[in-house]
Amino acid sequence: MQESKLKLLVVDDDDVDRERIRRMLNAANVDVEIEEAIDARESISILNDCEYDCIIVDYRLGETDGLSLLNSIRTTLAKQCAVIMVTGLGDEQVAAEAMRLGASDYLIKNELKTPQLLSAILGAVHKADLKKQLHALAHYDALTGLVNRPLLIDRIDQAISLSTRADTLSALAFIDLDNFKPVNDKYGHQAGDAVLVEIANRLKSGLRQYDTVSRIGGDEFVILLTGLENLSECELLLERIRIVVNAPIALDRANFTRVSASIGVALIKRCELNADTMLRRADQSMYLAKKSGKNRVIFFDPEEESKFQERRHLLERVELGLENNEFELYYQPKVNLLENKLIGLEALIRWHHPEKGLQAPWYFVDALEHATLGISIGEWVLKTVIEQLSQWNKCGLDITVSINISVVHLQDEGFVEQLEAYIKETPDVQANQIELEILESSSIKNMDTVIGILQTCRAIGVKIALDDFGTGYASLSYLKKLPLDTLKIDKSFIINMLDDSGNQVIVESIIALSKAFGYELIAEGIETAEHVSMYTDMGGMCGQGFAIAHPMPSHDVLKWVQDYEDLAV
Ligand code: C2E
Ligand code: MG
Ligand code: MG
User: Fold this and answer.
1) Which of 26, 249, 279, 329 has CA 20 to 30 A from 541's CA?
2) How far apart are CA 168 and CA 162, in angstroms?
3) Distances from the Cα of 66 to the Cαs of 43, 95, 505, in angstroms?
4) Which has more confidence, 156 or 270?
């Protein structure tokens, strides 16, 4: 509602009529400021510079009629203020037309009296205010005041059609904040909201007036840059955006925080695609920006598009495969090479692809590492191994199985509880029959979290191995902090050591290191008898590899174990 002085514009070519309205309102004792215009042209130029709460337009306005002025107010000028049309007696048809064109009300000139005029004005202003609020709700984000998704889509569509008609260049940039969630978690939602508002303001002030800035999700913003001169202007603007987002944000007097922006860009140039497709392209590029290290701008590339489609197809196919029971665990023996004794098995996942046949994990590694699907697969692996252990226990094969755990699964909330629950559901399986293999490269990120999780695992009796050791650049001090039982030398060092002294030195050092730290050691990639002898000569003891056995289906394991032990006797 109006809190301050009402601003009124009276458009009438008749001096006497304008004066009459002014007198009536003065008599009404309301706080009103009245501006006058004598024709359409003058009123349009006034309206270009100034906002009014209500415009009173005479239907008969000299050469142009009031209706066409009303039309311009609503369409060309896009004003949403109250407009009251004043008509002569007998012009009811005009009145109806005026309402259709967006007039708030109409008044008959001869019957005009102060109370009636005043109530018409106040009513019309009130109605216009409500309309403005509705319009804002429908088109703007309540928190930041930025354009919302439906209005954004409209603007993108406009940019697309302009790009074909007038050969213009526009750019659609999808921005996802990096590190926003920790701010929310640490300082609360109110602080999170304040950060979003601050970022919204920075985006707006970093851009030109006619660019569109929109928020379409929690910490997701989209900007539409139109009328670009060339690509480098676009790059420059986006770089500026990236930098302003990155500046520190004051939460209060004592606390500062910082977020950054991963930005994906789709260019709109002579483009035949629709707004949804453009948004998807920008979104995909944003995802690449995140994946390649965050806080950067990446432009959409059609080659990436096809990789993206392939990936999405694969993920869908894996999800279906999981439902259809197309996965199987193979098991590879780990042995003590000096005593020819079986010490454990490593579970390795395989996929019986209905068309492509048996697939090794590299084929679906995207699924193994996917934020949600990777967890579903991981849980299936855990459950399957534990059931298998129970069966082997019943057959008298008391053995440890190592399970490869993806980072996403390991760091999933409730991972340890779930693991513990699976073990408890199967009472004849002991926690110490399970070893988790964690990739060296993946455990370095979020190290403190990982250490905590591994500690709880060990507390319930589960063992921990560091997989592919030597490839992940873990420092010695880091190695000391990790709660580990076993190191696994990456197979590349073993496979290549026979004729490469550099790899020999590495293997020897890792053997010494494991002894110094008191860790068990297993060599992967024992492919030949030469590997066995060189490795054991160096002081190594345990290993796995094709020279001992290839990974095999579970139903082959018992027989293999018997044959192997017979041989050892
Ligand atoms: P990894 O854990 O390092 O497993 C050892 C890989 O080396 C296995 O490949 C195994 O088949 C292969 N291998 C064993 N002996 C030899 C040898 O003598 N020479 C050579 N060249 N290779 C040998 P695989 O089964 O293809 O698995 C590849 C990787 O996929 C694994 O590496 C592991 O990181 C991952 N993976 C396997 N199963 C699972 C699973 O159930 N869950 C998760 N998250 N990852 C898995
Ligand atoms: Mg492994
Ligand atoms: Mg390995």
Assistant:
1) 329
2) 7
3) 11, 11, 93
4) 156
pLDDT in tens, 500-554: 999 999 999 999 999 999 999 999 999 999 999 999 999 999 999 999 999 999 9
Domain spans in the chain, listed from the N-terminal domain onward = 6-138, 149-300, 312-568
Structure tokens at 266: 């789709």
| Gyration radius of the chain over CA positions | 36
| Closest CA to ligand 1's atom 19 | 525
Burial 248-276 (b: 16+ CB within 10 A, else e): ebebeeeeebebbbbbbbbbbeebeeebe
Q: How far is 368 from 435, CA to CA, in rounded Å?
A: 18
Q: What's domain 6-138's superfamily in CATH? A: Response regulator (3.40.50.2300)
Site residues for ligand 1, CB cut-off 6 Å: 332, 347-349, 360-361, 368, 381, 404, 406, 437, 467-468, 491, 495, 524-527, 544-546, 551
CA dihedral defined by 79, 81, 87, 91, rounded to 10 degrees?
70
- The DSSP call for residue 558 is H
Query: What pTM was computed for the model?
Result: 0.63
Task: State which of 404, 531, 546 you would mutate to test the pocket of ligand 1, scoring each by most atoms of that ligand within 8 A of its C-beta.
Answer: 404
Tokens read off for 61: 């306005």
Q: Which atom of ligand 1 is nearest to the CA of 361?
A: 30
The rounded distance, in Å, linking the Cα atoms of 275 and 160 is 8
Span of 177-186, 259-268, 444-453 with lowest mean pLDDT:
444-453
Give the relative orientation of helices 114-139 and 149-165 as an angle to the nearest 10 degrees.
80
Q: Give the span between the Cα atoms of 248 and 257, in whole angstroms.
A: 6
A 10 A CB-CB count for 47 gives 22
Q: Helix count (H) and strand count (E) of the chain?
A: 22, 22
3-state DSSP call for residue 156? helix
Ligand 1: nearest atom to the Cα of 546: 18
Cα separation of 269 and 287, whole Å? 22
Query: In 166-274, where does DSSP find H-type helix?
Result: 180-187, 189-206, 231-246
Q: Is 54 helix (H, G, I), strand (E, B) or coil?
A: strand
Which CATH superfamily is 312-568 part of? EAL domain (3.20.20.450)
Do 6-138 and 312-568 share a fold? Answer: no
Q: Which atom of ligand 1 is nearest to the CA of 360?
A: 26
In 3D space, the residue among 216, 221, 148, 142 whose CA is nearest the CA of residue 178 turns out to be 221
Kindly state the tokens that stand for 529. Answer: 């008898």
Bridge partner residues of 84 (DSSP): 56, 105
Packing angle between helix 66-74 and helix 40-49, nearest 10 degrees? 20
- The reply to whether CATH 3.40.50.720 applies to domain 149-300 is no
Record the tokens describing residue 493, joined without a space. 């060092």
